[in-house]
Request: fold
Amino acid sequence: MAAEKLAITVVQSPAVIAAKATLKAKWLAAAQTTGGVPDEALANLDEAVDESVFAFALSLASGNANDPKVVSFLAAPHNWYGMSVPGSRTTFDNPDTLYRSIPVDPASSYVITGKVHGQKPVDFNFSLYSSTNATLSNLAGDQLGTNADGSFFINANSSPTGGGNQIQLVSGAASIFVRDTINEWGVQQFNSLAIKRTPSASTQSQSADALATTLAATLQTSAAAAPFIAYNTLAYAQPANTLPAPSLGGTGGRLANQAASYAAFQLADDEALVLNVNLGGAKYFIAPAYGRWTITTDYINHTQTLNNTQAVPNPDGTYTFVISPKDPGVYNWVDTAGLHQGFLNPRWQGLPATPASQGPSASAQLVKLSDVRTILPATTKYVTAAERQAQLAARAASYASRYAP
Reply:
């Protein structure tokens, strides 16, 4: 909470507000080179810029390697403990994942303490990042040793021979990026987490004014636009409405042991994409739709994302989703929230150590909305208007518990 309060103050600085205009212009110019900018995307541009800037501010508010803090970001706007917190979504945020970042220095030693609760995440990872978000190592949840009550500690230091839970801080390490992913909202609990430098070091926190000066300077650089344009390039590497085979992550900040695919969609009101998915033994899958600026919009009140628990599987364990701006009357509807152009980033996590006979895969077929029912499996679950409202009400209620005091 302290970091969020500080970040809110920082983004209200006149210098940061002025720098946003530069960032916005860069985003527009970058988007014009990859797919263009429809009018509906312009309506979401200010929101996307604001959230990206707040994410930068949260990163600065996370302290430094001498006095690190565990700070959550890449989240939708929320209210908790009487505080209204802006959104901090960037570059294909996942509403099923709690993202946390911790600054570290290879010359220092740290102890990370935490607890895995009874209803644990379906998948969680501790990724060691360089200053450019290259993955240097990854400690997966199934590699983590815990006590009977779920508590654990991780030694993070430069030692190459540490026992138990350890993250070796190799040369170039700059942060530990933590992902806890749930597929049962309101049931599964994110892990508790804290960090201490050992031994502790005296440090002087930077003022909000100093952080604002740093943030304003960052927003003036080309680096602030790099994540956005890099992912646009991935999505537009093939024609819109076509989905390339999934690949393992590890570059550009992607989770190293995750399979994912990137694609652009372009749909008219009377069109839909039918997405057929094979989990390939993965514990977790999500089918999300994003706007032109590579972030979600309102996934709380729309089925803008559906995971393998929220959706209904086919009898053979595969999944079929319908992606469209208008409601097709199908339970597994990935609602683009009215957007006709944007991006898809299906992803698979918790992949088996021994690959399944058929690995993760997905295919997309562009169809007329009126023809959707003719190509869906016979076992497809359909919904009435009242059933859709019940589905959405249950979704919003399950999400609300995330920020309950």
Q: What stands out?
A: The longest helix spans residues 39-61. Residues 186 and 402 are 7 Å apart (CA to CA). The mean pLDDT is 92.
